């Protein structure tokens, strides 16, 4: 199926939950030419959607006309009735998501694909009590979804290959970089990698090997400069697997093996040192410093997204 045919078939899309992730997902799909219905039950959040979507038009300097393809609903059934795809981005609670998927199954056509954006709850669990489990799939967007290209497409033990194929094609056609994750495991791929590094980082700072600021400098000014263009597998192939093995032999036994979260992290949380929101976490933060970090991150992601848009056809 080519891009145009695909768009015709899957033109109508529903997004369930118009919060941080949902409004970005709805926006990027509308920008790709789809008609998108957003179901948002909270009146306040519903009322703020036009303003939040308009901000994205301004961010990308897009045609404001694309917002006419987005419709906001306060009733689930009306929002999903005609949808070929539903992306669920509701709060991260299993009973709520299960209930929503049961309602979705009753409201949509039998071949409508039901995708959950959960970062931690397996879609296997969300869809466990449904009749047609072959159309339930995980689509893990990264925050903010309209700026970060990756979407992990997680096939659970019941998801059909056709549903994986259709989901990957839809996301690719919308300008995302979907990857097929073949097992529905905690953290999928991206968060496992992120937290494997964080585990070692916390242990190094806890042991006094370096302070938290130095640790961040090592990542940002060191191997972090290569990460966006060189993944760990190609980096291993680049330097050679013989060298990679030699380093692994020396290093792995010495890496942190603390079972569960490190006591250093537990103690910080217990003491109320939660990070920027309390002024102290691993590092200390004034309100201005915290705002500068957020601005630096946002500016960098926007610049990368704009550069990518320029090179894309
Ligand atoms: N925030 C992130 O960085 C991030 C990244 C990847 C995945 N996720 C996942 O995306 C999902 C949504 O997260 P978020 O950060 O957008 O949360 P959010 O709180 O910003 O948005 C959730 C929205 O769902 C609405 N909602 C409440 N009850 C609902 C219901 N019964 N049905 C439908 N909508 C309902 C809320 O009013 C809110 O607008 C979660 O599963 C989360 O784990 C979040």
Number of strands: 8
Counting helices, strands and paired strands, the structural category is alpha/beta
- Can you tell me the residue ranges where pLDDT is under 50 for at least 5 consecutive residues? none
Shape: globular
Largest sheet: 8 strands, mixed
What is the CA-CA span between the terminal residues? 19 Å
* Proportion in helices: 40-55%
Rg computed from alpha carbons, rounded to a whole number of angstroms: 21 Å
What count of helical segments does DSSP give? 13
Q: Strand arrangement, largest sheet?
A: 3-2-1-4-5-6-7-8
- What bound compounds does this protein have? nicotinamide-adenine-dinucleotide
Please state the average pLDDT score.
95
**Element pattern in H and E:** HEHEHEHEHEHEEHEHHHHHH
Proportion of β residues?
A: 5-15%
Question: Summarize this, please?
Answer:
With about 325 residues, the chain is of the alpha/beta class. It contains 13 helices and eight strands.
3D structure, described in words:
The chain is α/β, with parallel strands linked by helices. 50% of the residues lie in helices and 12% in strands. It contains 13 helices and eight strands. Strand 7, helix 7 and strand 8 form a beta-alpha-beta unit. It binds nicotinamide-adenine-dinucleotide. Nicotinamide-adenine-dinucleotide binds next to helix 2 and helix 5.
Secondary-structure blueprint:
Elements: H1 3-9, E1 12-16, H2 20-31, E2 35-39, H3 43-60, E3 70-73, H4 76-80, E4 85-88, H5 94-107, E5 113-116, H6 123-126, E6 136-141, E7 150-154, H7 161-173, E8 177-181, H8 190-206, H9 212-227, H10 232-239, H11 241-251, H12 263-270, H13 287-311
Parallel strand pairs: 1-2, 1-4, 2-3, 4-5, 5-6, 7-8
Antiparallel strand pairs: 6-7
The structure holds nicotinamide-adenine-dinucleotide.
């Amino acid at each position: 199926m080519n891009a145009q045919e695909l768009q015709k078939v899957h033109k109508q899309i529903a997004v369930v939950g118009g919060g941080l992730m949902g409004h970005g997902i709805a926006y990027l799909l509308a920008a790709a030419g789809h008609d998108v219905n957003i179901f948002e039950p909270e009146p306040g959040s519903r009322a703020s959607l036009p303003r939040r979507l308009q901000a994205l038009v301004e961010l990308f300097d897009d045609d404001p006309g694309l917002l006419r393809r987005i419709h906001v609903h306060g009733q689930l059934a009306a929002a999903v009735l005609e949808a070929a795809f539903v992306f669920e981005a509701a709060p991260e609670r299993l009973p709520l998501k299960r209930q929503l998927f049961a309602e979705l199954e009753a409201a949509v056509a039998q071949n409508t694909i039901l995708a959950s954006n959960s970062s931690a709850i397996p879609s296997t669990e969300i869809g466990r009590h449904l009749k047609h489990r072959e159309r339930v799939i995980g689509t893990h967007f990264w925050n903010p979804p309209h700026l970060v290209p990756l979407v992990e497409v997680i096939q659970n033990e019941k998801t059909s290959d056709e549903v994986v194929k259709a989901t990957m094609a839809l996301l690719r056609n919308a300008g995302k970089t979907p990857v097929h994750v073949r097992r529905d495991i905690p953290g999928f791929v991206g968060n496992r990698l992120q937290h494997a590094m964080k585990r070692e980082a916390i242990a190094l700072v806890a042991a006094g090997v370096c302070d938290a600021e130095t640790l961040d400098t090592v990542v940002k000014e060191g191997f972090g400069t290569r990460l966006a263009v060189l993944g760990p597998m190609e980096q291993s192939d680049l330097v050679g697997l013989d060298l990679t093995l030699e380093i692994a032999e020396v290093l792995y036994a010495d890496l942190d093996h603390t079972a569960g979260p490190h006591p250093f992290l537990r103690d910080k949380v217990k003491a109320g040192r939660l990070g920027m929101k309390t002024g102290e976490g691993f590092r200390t933060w004034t309100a201005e410093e915290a705002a500068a970090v957020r601005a630096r991150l946002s500016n960098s992601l926007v610049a990368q997204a704009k550069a990518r848009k320029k090179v894309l056809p």
